[in-house]
Amino acid sequence: MPDEGKKSVMNAGGMTEETVKKYKWIYPAVIVLLVVIFAVGIGYGLVTVLQMEGSDPPAVLTEGRTPAPASKEEAADYFNKVLANALTEKPKFSENETFRIDEDSMETDGGELLLSTLKYIRSDFEDSLDATNEEKTANFFDGFAQYLDVPALTAADIEDFTCEYINYVCPSCGESSDSPQDGCENCGSERSYKMHYKDNYVVTLTLNPNGAAAKALFPPRSQTGIESLLGDGLKKYARVGTVTATYDKYTIRFEAVRATDRILSLRFAKELSVEGSLTFTGEFASLGSCAVGARLTNARNCGFTWPGISLDQKELTIAPGDTDNLIATLICDDPLAYEAKWSSSDESVVTVDDEGYLKASKTPGGMATITAEYEFGGKTFTDTCEVSVLNAVESIRLSRRHMKLSVGGTGTLSVIVSPAKATVKTVKWYSENESVATVDENGVVTAAAPGTAVIYALSDDGYFRSSCEVNVK
To answer: Measuring CA to CA, which residue among 377, 380, 389, 432 is closest to residue 141?
Structure first.
């Protein structure tokens, strides 16, 4: 007989209350364990998807019209070339002058409070000086030689130079970097970044301070001119005492389109160190007088706008029988006063109306070039878009994610293309480690040596990528 002083109540599952209480911790533990497993699984799945799936267009490393300058002589020649081209073609032009103080370089013998005050009035000082400079402009085809009298550069004028046009892109998520990366912190992919070429060259020329070009482009201000300049910028706050200025760096920085050698921007900058004294006035008079110093950059900033026409898409895919449209942007003095003329290279594939609306044929597999053009300033400007009529691939996946083989063994991978009615279902096969495993054009994998290799397929339409990890023992 059970002890009546310790009655046990059996639940429906045959367990006593004591047993339930004893093991009640199991339920939340199991739930936590399941959540962890689920989270890890999701995380692993996301990383796998990011590393294995997605659209992966090949990097097209197209050389510019002019190769990137690799020497001082080539850098000088390229600058002369793009500037001469602009002077001849006469794009729209603008120029302004700016003064900028390097806040980190500011110093004073008046203590932290005074230094904070100087930093506070810095932007107002810069704005005051900028406002005294009138912007110079020239409309399309008017010419601007009167504003930009620049001597031809030689290698002797250049102390150093850089030309930037290469960057690196994560093939999984598109994150970019100026330097090569073995993996991506943004998405977790372990794939190396791919090298890409940017559309433009950005060239910085550091001039020889004793060269002829530096002396012609950057004549030093007189002592009176420097004191007057600083006095104008600070007149609301202080009187400027004796000032000394030391010019120590002269640079020319320009950006040009690699495909056309058209210059987009040009900056002449001179950097100088300034030391002097200030006596505060007005509401700042209580700050008294102090010695100050800072680095200042005085720059001429030029912009160039080239006439032309630009379509919003350069390549377009349309399903059979569907419609779409292209948008043309006209770059001229008054875009509303001009109209683009549209044409199709093959109207049996795609037709286009007067407003850029497209109509695809009902037969897949064709391609046509759509052209938009207009006349401005006695010249005809055009842009094109390649239009393909097909049922586009939206994704691909391999028949297997993982494969185990022995050395000398083979296995076959197949590709499932979505949607099933896609017009172009062909793929190209690659191995990222052919010393371990190779793959032929039919997806047959051959194990060559122990190790791990990633086999992937890349669709010819859309460049969608899917992979399989092969372990060879």
So the answer is: 377
Q: What is the dihedral of CA 27, 30, 31, 37, to 10 degrees?
A: 180
pLDDT digit string, tens, across residues 224-247: 888 888 888 898 899 999 899 999
Q: CA 348, 354, 356, 359 torsion: positive or negative? A: negative
Q: How do residues 317-373 score in pLDDT, each as one tens digit?
A: 999 999 999 999 999 999 999 999 999 999 999 999 999 999 999 999 999 999 999
- Measured CA distances, 462 to 39, 350, 421, 422 (Å): 31, 20, 15, 11
pTM for this predicted structure: 0.80
Q: How far apart are CA 17 and CA 435, in angstroms?
A: 64
Closest by CA position to 54, among listed 65, 62, 46: 46
Pairing between strand 465-472 and 451-459?
Answer: antiparallel
What are 421-464's pLDDT values in tens digits? 999 999 999 998 999 999 999 999 999 999 999 999 999 999 99
Tell me the CA distances in angstroms from 391 to 387, 423, 429, one per residue in order. 13, 5, 22
Residue 16 has pLDDT above 80, yes or no: no
Report the largest interatomic distance among the alpha carbons of the chain, rounded to a whole angstrom: 116
CB 439 within 8 A of CB 472: no
Q: Which residues of 55-66 are buried (b: 16+ CB within 10 A; e: fewer)?
A: ebeeeeeeebeb
Round to whole Å and give the CA distance between 174 and 57: 11
pLDDT tens per residue, range 276-324 = 999 999 988 988 999 999 999 999 999 999 999 999 999 999 999 999 9
pLDDT at res. 27: 52
- pLDDT tens for 74-132 read 999 999 999 999 999 999 999 999 999 999 999 999 889 899 999 999 999 999 888 88
Residue that the structure tokens 């031809």 belong to: 152
